[in-house]
């Protein structure tokens, strides 16, 4: 009695001899395949074509996503570079403020951008009103209560915001971005970019003559 073949051994053999059916095409028509809900092909060749098409579609989708992401990243990089150079080329605090606000409003499509400077007693008062810590390096992001947002922005349409705190001489500075969309800043966004711009502003202000 002949030994029964182990399906695993057959599978291994076929994987090691991928040209096995090349000279045995007649066998292909005798093979049987289960028809799944996904619509499996009825022949080995059709199944292979079906699989290759699926793989090609997946690769094309990945490529499209990569190109789209790369394009967005390149655009953000170029805008960030231009803003960085503009900040470094600014000669006064007022110049920096104007440059940053204009860039965020016109190039980054932010609804509202503010850069404000506070004395120590003013920042303490702001902390008491907003219940937000305004220490150096602090970042706050989210759809805060309208009353809390009103202490930062004069524009009453702002529904969500991002705040980045920095130090400028003896004053505390706040870079604030506001959106009219409450779901724009939900608190879980990556704030690396605004932190980067905040740090560039802070470094540039160090080299500019402070307020008298």
Lateral strand order in the biggest sheet: 1-4-3-2
Distance between the termini: 104 Å
Might you state the CATH topology name of the largest domain?
Beta-Lactamase
**How would you describe the shape?**
elongated
Instruction: Give the topology string: H per helix, E per strand.
Output: HHHHEHEHEEH
CATH top level class name of the largest domain: Alpha Beta
Task: Give the name of the CATH superfamily of the largest domain.
Answer: GAF domain
| Percentage of residues in helical conformation | 40-55%
Descriptive report:
By secondary structure, the chain is an alpha+beta fold. It folds into 2 domains: 55 residues; 116 residues, Beta-Lactamase. Helix content is 49%, strand content 14%. It has a 4-stranded antiparallel sheet. β3 and β4 form a beta hairpin. α3 runs antiparallel to α4 and α3 packs parallel to α7. The longest helix has 45 residues. The protein is elongated, with a radius of gyration of 31 Å. The N and C termini lie far apart (104 Å). About 2% of the residues have low confidence.
Structure characteristics:
Beta-Lactamase, alpha+beta, 4-stranded antiparallel β-sheet, elongated, single chain, 14% strand, 212 residues
Secondary-structure map with pairings?
Layout: H1 7-16, H2 25-28, H3 44-88, H4 93-106, E1 112-118, H5 120-130, E2 139-142, H6 146-150, E3 160-168, E4 171-179, H7 192-206
Helix pairs in contact: 3-4, 3-7
Entry summary:
The chain is elongated, with a radius of gyration of 31 Å.
